[in-house]
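[Solved] Which block belongs to which protein?

Original post:
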Amino acid sequence: TLPGETVKIQLLNEEGLISTVSVVKIGQDGNETGEEVTLSQGDANNKWSFEMPAQNVKIKAVYQAAHTISLNVTGTNGMKDPPTITVTGATQSGDVAYTAAANSTITITPEEVDGYSVEVTVTQTPATGGPEETVSASEVSGTWSFTLPENNVRVSIAYTPISTYSINGLL
């Protein structure tokens, strides 16, 4: 392939696995330079593409176990429209389910709804069974982030009405 031409890659879809691909430039000494080539975002058919640089490249395909992230949204009764929940770092695999590889950074951004507070809790059930365990998730400006463990997780998003009271005549 000549420099500047588009190179297309398609990885095989393997059940229960998530695939990622990277392209690294090769130096004149035959070793990886550590410089990655920019890839197009992989699509649903696992197709990727990149522009061939002026040097050789190494294409790396990695398959990892897919872990499920299930969303459980509560407290939305009485809302005109259900809130939008944005998930990044994972691939949507159902209405309220996503998949990603272990150690992926996952972010959850629930839509803010006037008159409601929102709380997000992430739990995992160990593959060996046993009780659910809380997964540490940090919140910054209404977005929760966590590192996906080696187990499936459930993300519980609870909307709670904010009670307001007015007291007349008191300072």
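(Second protein starts here: sequence line, then its structure tokens.)
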Amino acid sequence: QAVRLRPEYGEAWYNLGLVLYQTGRFSDAATAYRHAARLKPDDVDVRINLGGALRQIDDLAGALLQLRMAARLAPNDAMARYSHGALLAERRQDKEAETELQAAVRIDPTYARAWHRLGTVQLRRGAAAAALASLQQAARLAPRQAAVQADLGRALGKQGQTAVALAAWRN
């Protein structure tokens, strides 16, 4: 109703995008977020959410563009840097992903998901010691996350700490 009454109101398009995304209508959400982005081009949350919706409909190039814009618009926003880094990691652009994820944890040292993703990227790049440190931090922040414990176990195994790795996997 709000977008019909005031189609120039970017916040209404953004809110519509949120509802559509939450109900699994990702293509429609992307359309709503595009309208919001046209009306609010410097809104970081709009760019992050548009990137997420585009990722859900497998428009990875479009998602990457939006998330890169979000990171550039707000270089000190941990979510913007994490979102960009996470998609880069998904695309196996590990060097750039590591830079973005390191920025995210510098901005917000309590961001467990960013520490976890950073550790998995470092592990994939062969930087086992750095990965272990990142994954240990993720495990301290999110001790009940099974994926964190599993990846911590992998990093410990790479460091030759088999007994400790087994304990992490059992957790």
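Accepted answer:
You had them paired correctly. Confirming on the second one: The chain has a mean pLDDT of 92.
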